[in-house]
């Protein structure tokens, strides 16, 4: 019997090794995330919070001996079939920027084996098989990546910001299809994004990753039950969520609040560790005005 858990991460720690035998730099600490098959979970956190690292670990791309399992198997030493990872680094590969026709590229990665799913994705993502990869826009190249990555059936999909280049229509059609995959096949999606409008009805769960750690409960159901929302969110955020004239979706209001809290926590840590905030304009050594004047060659 298949494991009912698509993702089962308990107290995951991870750090990048430093040279000369020094201690590793911690990136993830005490990460917890358990998702049942069929879930659609948004991974929310600021830039640098560790979202990409967590997705890469779950895809079996980084060695860790912490307790992390996907589809019932260890993520690195026994990575199961059926795990698909799509990240932004694909677009920097020189091969996918060469004079390569899309039809030939898709055949080279097995498109002929999955004709029905391939053709469905070609329609959803509005891809022209006669495109040449070196001539298309970043958004069109991203569409080809998604077709190539999703045409083989998958059980767990790990998405790292790959929809950022898509136009609103194509993104909406893709997300509708992903939701259909989770309901009809019991597949699971963990999706890191900073674009929240239009997503209110899409996720079944949220996961808040702050400075490398998940904040409990992880994951949390979406929409948030009233009692949980009252515990997690201040009154002004709850009021904005119910305001029909709010600036965006209910989900956007939650994400904005979390990011404000995350920034405040980061600044407090920096001040505690070094006595100052590290980001932004600095008065130490040279002011920003003097710096730019130094490199002003107009006079």
Automatic annotation (TrEMBL):
Domain ABC transporter: from-to ranges: 7-236
Annotated GO MF terms: ATP binding; ATP hydrolysis activity
InterPro entries assigned: AAA+_ATPase, ABC_transporter-like_ATP-bd, P-loop_NTPase
Coiled-coil residues: none
Cross-referenced SUPFAM superfamilies: P-loop containing nucleoside triphosphate hydrolases
Keywords of this entry: ATP-binding, Hydrolase, Nucleotide-binding
PANTHER family found in the cross-reference section: SKFA PEPTIDE EXPORT ATP-BINDING PROTEIN SKFE
Name used for this protein in its record: P-loop containing nucleoside triphosphate hydrolase protein
Species for this entry: Rhodotorula diobovata
């Amino acid at each position: 019997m298949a494991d009912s858990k698509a993702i089962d991460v308990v107290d995951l720690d991870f750090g990048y090794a430093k040279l000369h035998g020094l201690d590793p730099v911690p990136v993830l600490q005490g990460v917890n995330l358990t998702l049942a098959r069929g879930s659609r979970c948004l991974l929310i956190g600021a830039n640098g919070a560790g979202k990409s690292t967590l997705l890469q670990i779950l895809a079996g791309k980084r060695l860790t001996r912490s307790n992390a399992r996907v589809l019932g198997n260890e993520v690195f030493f026994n990575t199961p079939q059926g795990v698909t990872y799509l990240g932004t680094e694909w677009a920097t590969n020189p091969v996918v920027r060469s004079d390569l026709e899309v039809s030939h590229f898709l055949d080279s990665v097995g498109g002929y084996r999955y004709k029905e799913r391939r053709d469905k994705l070609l329609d959803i993502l509005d891809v022209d098989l006669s495109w040449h990869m070196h001539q298309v826009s970043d958004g069109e190249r991203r569409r080809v990546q998604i077709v190539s990555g999703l045409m083989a059936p998958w059980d767990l999909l790990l998405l790292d910001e790959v929809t950022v280049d898509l136009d609103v229509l194509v993104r909406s059609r893709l997300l509708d299809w992903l939701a259909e995959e989770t309901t009809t096949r019991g597949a699971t999606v963990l999706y890191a994004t900073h674009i929240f409008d239009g997503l209110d009805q899409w996720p079944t769960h949220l996961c808040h990753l702050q400075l490398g750690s998940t904040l409990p409960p992880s994951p949390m159901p979406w929409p948030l039950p009233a009692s949980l929302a009252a515990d997690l969110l201040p009154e002004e955020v709850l009021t904005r969520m119910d305001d029909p004239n709010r600036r965006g979706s209910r989900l956007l209001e939650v994400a904005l609040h979390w990011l404000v809290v995350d920034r405040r926590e980061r600044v407090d840590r920096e001040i505690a560790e070094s006595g100052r905030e590290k980001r932004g304009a600095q008065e130490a050594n040279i002011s920003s005005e003097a710096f730019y004047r130094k490199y002003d060659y107009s006079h």
